[in-house]
Structures are given as C-alpha cells and as structure tokens.
Amino acid sequence: MTTNIDFVDLKTQYESISSEIDAAVREVITTASFIGGRFVKSFESNFSQYCGVRHCIGAGNGTDALFIALKALGIGPGDEVITAANSFIATSEAITLSGARPVFIDCDEKTCNIDLKRLEGAITGKTRAIIPVHLYGQMADMHGLMEIARRHGLYVVEDAAQAHGATYKGQAAGTFGAFACFSFFPGKNLGAYGDAGAIVTNDDALAARARMYANHGRIDKYDHVFEGVNSRLDGLQAAILDVKLKHLERWTKRRQEIARIYDEGLKDIAVTPSVLPGAEHVYHLYVIRVRNRENVRKSLKEKGISTGVHYPTPLPLLKAYAHLGYRPQDFPAAYALKDEILSLPIYADMTDDQAGRVVRELKNAVCTEGSLGA
Ligand SMILES: *Cc1c(COP(=O)(O)O)cnc(C)c1O
Asked: Hey, which of 49, 98, 278, 292 has its CA 20 to 30 A from 172?
C-alpha cells in the first residue's frame, strides 16, 4: 500500500527534532519565560545574524510585522504603497491597516515576482513605499527595484515571508529594504508551532521605533511614548524557532534537492519554475504551470497527492478590493497565470521516492488530461 503525500508534513519534521524541541519547551515553561525574556532575545539575536542584519524584532505574526514596519516609517492615511498583484492578502491588508492605499502592479510572467517595467508608471506624488514580495522563495530583482526607489525617494519594505535564507547576486533577503518582514507561520520554511513573525532592519532608530510600536509604544513598563499595538513573539515560539533555525540551512538544501528532481522529471510536461541567474531560490513553494489545472489536481488527489494553488485570484481582483476598481486587463500576466499555476508538495523531510512518485503521477495526469504543452 502506498501512503498519501501531504502538501506539507510537519509531523515528520517534529519527530526528527522532538528531543530538542521538547527540552526547549520545557525550559520556557519551567522558567516561566512567556513574554519577553531570554528565549526571545536569543532568537532575535540568532535570526538577525542568520539574515546578516543588525536588528531583529519579534512580532505576533508576519502580517503584523508588515503593518508595524509601515507604521514605524510613518506611513498612514493619504499615502500610497505599491505592491505586487500576486501575493497573499496579508501584504495588502497591512497597507490598508496602516491607513494607506494599496496600489497593485502586475507580475513578471516567468518569475511571478513584481514586474519592474511597470513600477515607475505606478508611482504618484502620494507614493511613499514599495513592498516587493519574494514570492515562492525567489527574491524579486532587488538591485533594480532599489535603484527605482532611490530615484523617487521611496521606502522599501521587503515581504520576505516566503524567503528565509534566499539570496540574489550574493545578497540576502531582508538586507535591502528599510525593513524586511518574515512570517513563521507553521508551514513557512522556518515555522513556529503557532503564529509568529519578525521585522529586521539595519537602522538603529527604525529598529527602536518598530520595537516600541509592537509593544504598546512603550520604552519602559508604563512609559508609553505613543500608542502602538500588542504584537510580540512569545517565549515558547521563540525557543521553538531557535531550535529549528539550527536546521534551516540543511532543510533549505533538501528543498533545493527536491526541486532538482521535479525540474528534471517535469521539464517536458509542464512549465517549471524560472530561476533568475544569480538567484538562490529557497522553494517555499514549487509552482509549475499546466493546462487543465483543476483536472490534473483532481487526478493527483485520487492518487493521494495533495497540491495547492498560490494564489487562485490576484489580490486586486478579490471582492475585498472591488472598491479600487481594478480590471483583469490591468494585470495580464497575473490573470493568465491564475488558472495554470499548481503548487507541488515540497518539504525537507520528503524522500526521493515521494518526489519520484509525484513526478510519475503528474506525468500520467497530464497525459490523460491532454494538458501537455502548457
Ligand atoms: C504567510 C505570508 C504572510 C503573512 O504571514 P502571517 O504570519 O501568516 O501573518 C505575508 N506575506 C506573504 C507573502 C506570506 O506568504
């Protein structure tokens, strides 16, 4: 009997590191280090080192991290913030939450990342910042983007929620913008056992402001300089993340090995991910393009293989943004992608056999569905 292949498998990961995790959790509880404290400090220090930045500020989740970064930059009502049409809604929610207006631009059809050719045309007198999303684990073209941002005096906040450890031309995700924001949602490449996130920056003053904003605007227990929010990384999640961070590099390498198996096995039957020269993709998601996507998904499901779609509707075309008045023809690339993209199972604990089975079943599905040549 063959077993199912889940889209992500966090149970097998836990089994492989359970003694370390259990010890860390026990230590947090027995020392009652629930809010703040040494486990949070330790993770913040280790994660900033991992990213190669001066400061890391824990947050309650990745959405809050983006919101806090925008507030720390003083962005609010009357401002516009440009971001990519294809991302998770957290990116644009953070913009709206700050009081600013999201302005969406189309993606590059190959990488699915923000299309720099369309960027300058979207900049107005109200634009204050750009949020590039390092989608699927591959960085946006940050050198080009930073150049445009500099020319127009705009802040850049990287949405690095899917890109822990990704690099482009030797420079890591999180080191380009005024801020970069990470999510440690359980299924992310570095995942907590609940919600968690972080903001990183090289700027001392911005770091101090973001830290205050995330913690009730306080500099001391009851000394509140302004109103902020309560969005902190807690001790338990920090201790768990600190354990997992030690394994992240190895896990990333394994994701890349699985991606090579898929690349090789699928190149003749689907459009496999396009990786820019000089980019190190960390494969949070392995996204192919096929015709008859829904039928292919169904055939795979029948064989016990779970897949995903990231994301079925470009953000500006969601009901939530109907009031902004965007049309499909404003986003030809994102609109063309939406019915063909298919995310395959990928995680560090996947075996070569499992990856091989996905390739075989996908080939069968594509041939019977006549999806060839997408
Ligand atoms: C996961 C994700 C977020 C939000 O992170 P949460 O921790 O779930 O709030 C933001 N942006 C992108 C691109 C994401 O994938």
From this structure: 98
Whether residue 258 is contained in a domain is answered as: yes
Burial label for 38, CB within 10 Å (0-12, 13-18, 19+), is middle
Count the domains in the chain: 2
3-state helix, strand, coil split of the chain in percent (to 5) is 45, 15, 40
Cα 66 to ligand 1 centroid, rounded to whole Å: 9
For the purposes of burial, counting CB atoms within 10 Å of the CB of 349, is it exposed (0-12), middle (13-18) or buried (19 or more)?
A: middle
Ligand 1 neighbourhood includes 83 CB (under 6 angstroms): no
In short, whether 185's Cβ falls inside 6 Å of ligand 1 is yes
Cα 184 to ligand 1 centroid, rounded to whole Å = 8
- Residue 202 CA to ligand 1 center (angstroms) comes to 22
Q: What is the mean pLDDT of each run of 10 residues along the chain (374 residues)?
A: 89 97 98 97 98 98 98 98 97 98 97 97 98 98 98 98 97 96 98 98 98 95 95 98 98 98 97 97 98 96 97 98 97 97 98 98 86 50
Which residue range(s) make up the domain with 353? 248-369
Q: Are residues 216 and 326 in the same domain?
A: no
Tell me if 1 is assigned to some domain.
no
Residues 42 and 64 in one domain: yes
The pTM (predicted TM-score) of the whole model is: 0.97
Domain final residue pick, 245, 275, 304: 245
Inside any domain, residue 160: yes
- Report the nearest atom of ligand 1 relative to the CA of 87: 13
**Is ligand 1 within 6 A of the CB of residue 231?**
no
Radius of gyration of the chain (CA): 21
Domain containing 230 — which CATH number? 3.40.640.10
Ligand 1 site, residue 172, Cβ cutoff 6 A:
no
Same domain for 34 and 119, yes or no, is yes
Give the CA distances from residue 229 to residues 71, 214, 217, 218, 362, in Å, rounded to whole numbers and listed in that order.
10, 5, 7, 10, 46
Domain boundary among 198, 225, 245: 245
- The ligand 1 atom at the shortest distance from the C-alpha of residue 184 is 7
